[in-house]
Amino acid sequence: MQFMVSEIFRSIQGESSYTGLPCTFVRLAGCNLRCRQCDTRYALEAGHEMSLDEILDRVSSLDSNLVEITGGEPLIQEGTPELTALLKQRGHRVLVETNGSLDISLLPEGVIRIMDIKCPASGESKQFMWENIWRLRDGDEVKFVISDRHDYEWARGIVRERFGRSRTEILFSTVFGELPPRNLVEWILEDRLSVRFQLQIHKYIWPHDARGV
Question: Which of 36, 71, 153, 186 fits a 20 to 30 Å CA distance from 78?
Answer without folding.
Answer: 36
